[in-house]
Amino acid sequence: MSVPVLLVTGFLGAGKTTFINQLLQGDHGLRIAAIVNDFGSINIDAKLLDASADGVIGLKNGCICCSLQGDLLRTLKIVLGQKPSPELIVIEASGVADPAGIVQSLMDPVLWHSARLEIVACVIDAPDVNDRVNDPLWQTQLRGSDVLCLAKTNGLPQDAIASLKARLAILGKRHVFDLGEKLPLTVLLSGGSLKPRDIDYPPLTDSRFVHLEWEREGQISMVDFQAVMTELAPNLLRAKGFLTFCDQPKGMLFQLVGQRATLVGSDRTDEGKCQLVLIGDKKNFDVEVAYSLLDRL
Ligand SMILES: Nc1nc2c(ncn2[C@@H]2O[C@H](COP(=O)(O)OP(=O)(O)OP(=O)(O)O)[C@@H](O)[C@H]2O)c(=O)[nH]1
Questions:
Q1: Residue 251 resides in a domain
Q2: Full-model pTM
Q3: Looking at the 3D structure of the chain, how many domains does it have?
Q4: Taking the CB of the first residue and of the last residue of the chain, which one, N or C, has fewer CB atoms within 10 A?
Q5: Distance CA 32, CA 90 (A)
Q6: Which residues are near ligand 1 (CB < 6 Å)?
Q7: Is there a single domain that holds both residue 254 and residue 138?
Q8: ipTM reported for the complex, 2 dp
């Protein structure tokens, strides 16, 4: 029998990993396998996904919408060969991916017999919509999806959420869910087209992003790190990493989306090691400058 595939897309930092973790922890009773695509070579998202998934496989060093299409198909075959086999496969696209490229790969007629694309869900950072609405990649991700899932609605008034849903409906998206309402998986899956589909536009090849990966053995100073990030943040779209700070007993997970940064204790850090990924727009993020600042830490 063919295993349904849920493809989760959405802009950098929209909330895809958080959403998938909620799915993995849900009481649906399904065996779910997750495939996660990190833009760089450091597999941060795979580490953040809940260990309860029936196998989390990270695909790194490229994007499954273009350079890693072959890897995606090979990985799906491995996942499908697991015993017992998964009842749902969730694929998390990287935040720079055009879902059309991934959908194209999944339309492979041989694969379709064993894994069928059920639905493409786009996670939207609700408070961020005004800043993103004219971004061509954001628009492409929206257009290539069957359902939209609004993340980060906690703290937004109900009428703001309702008007956002109405606005997205005008863009042709009838199925807009608020993730704050703890969406049942069955409801989400029922929003799909449930049949193979054609792509009616060429996938976007977006090379406007640059990223930097920085690793360091040993601890760093929190004050110095905050100073570096304060300098870099205005030119970043996304940053995430596991860090170990002097005088802190535990490693920490650092997340930056736009100008919102968080630092929380984490068990998933590698002992005594720092790993950081920064992503920005080529126009204003200077990787060399960023490296030189980080290397002073
Ligand atoms: N307040 C709040 N924060 C959220 C919510 N969802 C995600 N976040 C935060 O937003 C940041 C990014 O979340 P992720 O789930 O890693 O986003 P992502 O889309 O997987 O990010 P990339 O894959 O790196 O593009 C993290 O700091 C999350 O804790 C939410 O519903 N509410």
A1: yes
A2: 0.88
A3: 2
A4: N
A5: 7
A6: 10, 12-18, 45, 95, 151-152, 154, 179, 238, 240, 255, 257, 262
A7: no
A8: 0.98
